[in-house]
Design a protein that fits this description.
The chain has 13 helices and 13 strands. By secondary structure, the protein is an alpha/beta fold. The protein has a single domain, classed as Rossmann fold. The chain has a 7-stranded parallel β-sheet with strand order 3-2-1-4-5-6-11, with helices on both faces. Strands 7-10 form a two-stranded parallel sheet. The structure holds nicotinamide-adenine-dinucleotide. Nicotinamide-adenine-dinucleotide binds next to helix 3, helix 7, strand 5 and strand 7. Pfam families: Epimerase. Its cofactor is NAD(+).
């Protein structure tokens, strides 16, 4: 009171103590109830009853809603809907895969620690698929096995697409333990959680880096795997542990060994936005675009004395949309108690020099090129034989023109010079 500067008198006669005495029901001359005087009370009672009724209706509706019972759509299996856990779904390939799965009517849970991916990609997907039960994002580091297990416990997952990984060959040469932990250890964690919670379908992101530098080209799935850098070795170890586990289980596993992934969603909804701090490890398309935008002075080509047609390395460049299509086919055709391995590439090699020319065409910028020494851990020539995936999954790469694939990626990049943070349309 004092704080308000008011001094109210307190005592039996003060307004604080004074109370209106309740008005008794008046009896009329015939000894009956005076209904007129009862009207306010009846009105009050009916109002209370109405509130009670409405509350009961709301409670019943709430009880039946999945969120009240803790059973969100993500926590219940639904006939005809495949709930796919996409690890690394905030990253380049994972976000494109999530987009395709959502377009196909699947339910998607993205798990990512955002160490390399972009929340902007997830927000874009959420904007495209805002309906309840379509897409949820869970922030989690796969190294946290307790949290990973909780995610499997709380969600009714039908299949896992395991993209999450750090994935730069040169970085793996400098910091190998980080790679073994992030790739091999985390795959083991995911696999153990799948086993515990009975999730029996896995599509695993592997890489042509597991083959090392084979003597024979093209690379088939039976080409011996002799990786020569920690990134390739960590992926090969993950493949091995998946294979060993699956031998005595009824798991359906598809191991996809990607070649070099380029391009972006042709409709411009998603793109590739690596972190600026990773520029020094950048993949060739990122470096070309950075050079075309004037962010870096030019492109550095590492090695022009390889035993190839023009002395630069040869790679097999696969459009991300084609790659994602291979995942969808793998998901559809995964067979119980079987592990299948597929190369996902175009079957056609292009030299770094050809790639740079295609990049110049796509960007319209005559980027400066500097030739440097070879990069440790690089292989001269790598291209796939994709006949197995064509035969068994009916998958064929559709985007074979480098200039057109790079044009898709450049369009998005030009409109998003700062990645997902700012769009300039
Ligand atoms: N890009 C290529 O050319 C290529 C080629 C062959 C294989 N791959 C494989 O494809 C997969 C995806 O590659 P990308 O190019 O999209 O990479 P990316 O860096 O764009 O995406 C990887 C995602 O995984 C997340 N991640 C990393 N470690 C995590 C952890 N411990 N917990 C949770 N999330 C984590 C990152 O934040 C990121 O969003 C990787 O497994 C990679 O090895 C890529």
């Amino acid at each position: 009171m004092g704080s308000l500067g008011l001094a109210l008198p307190v005592g039996p006669t003060s307004p604080v103590f004074r109370r209106r005495s309740p008005r008794p029901y008046r009896m009329n001359n015939f000894g009956g109830v005076d209904w007129a005087s009862m009207q306010p009370r009846l009105f009050f009672v009916s109002k209370v009853l109405l509130v009670v009724l409405l509350t009961a209706i709301c409670m019943r509706a709430l009880r039946q809603s999945p969120s009240f019972t803790g059973l969100s759509k993500f926590a219940t299996h639904e006939r005809g809907v495949t709930h796919v856990l996409v690890t690394g779904g905030a990253g380049f390939i994972g976000s494109h895969a999530a987009l395709r799965l959502l377009e196909d009517g699947h339910r998607v849970t993205i798990v990512d620690n955002l160490s390399r991916g972009n929340m902007g990609a997830v927000e874009q997907l959420q904007a495209l698929f805002p309906e309840p039960g379509r897409l949820q994002f869970i922030y989690c580091d796969l190294g946290d096995s307790k949290r990973v297990n909780e995610i499997f416990k709380e969600n009714a997952i039908d299949a896992v697409m395991h993209f999450a990984a750090i994935a730069y060959v040169s970085e793996s040469m400098v910091d190998p333990l980080r790679y073994y932990h992030n790739i091999t250890f985390n795959t083991l964690t995911v696999l153990e959680a799948m086993k515990t919670y009975g999730v029996k379908k896995l599509i695993y992101s592997s890489t042509c880096a597991t083959y090392g530098e084979p003597e024979m080209m093209p690379i088939t799935e039976t080409t011996p795997q002799v990786p020569i850098n920690p990134y390739g070795k960590a992926k090969k170890m993950s493949e091995d542990l998946i294979q060993d586990f699956a031998k005595n289980s009824d798991f359906s596993v598809m191991i996809l060994r990607y070649f070099n992934v380029i391009g972006s969603d042709p409709k411009g909804r998603l793109g590739e936005a690596p972190r600026p701090e990773l520029r020094k490890h950048a993949r060739i398309s990122g470096a070309c675009f950075d050079a075309a935008m004037g962010i870096i002075p030019g492109i550095q080509v590492r090695g022009s004395d390889y035993n190839t047609t023009d002395g630069t390395c040869i790679r097999d460049y696969i459009h991300v949309t084609d790659l994602v299509d291979a995942h969808v086919k793998a998901l559809e055709k995964a067979k119980r108690a079987e592990v299948s391995v597929y190369n996902v590439g175009t079957g056609k090699g292009s030299s770094v020099k050809e790639f740079v020319e295609a990049c110049k065409f796509a960007t319209g910028v005559n980027v400066t090129v500097t030739i440097l020494d070879r990069r440790p851990g690089d292989y001269a020539e790598v291209y796939s034989d994709p006949s197995k995936i064509r035969r068994e999954l009916n998958w064929v790469a559709q985007h074979l023109d480098l200039e057109s694939s790079l044009s898709d990626a450049w369009r998005w990049r030009k409109q998003h010079p700062n990645g997902y943070s700012v769009a300039m349309i």
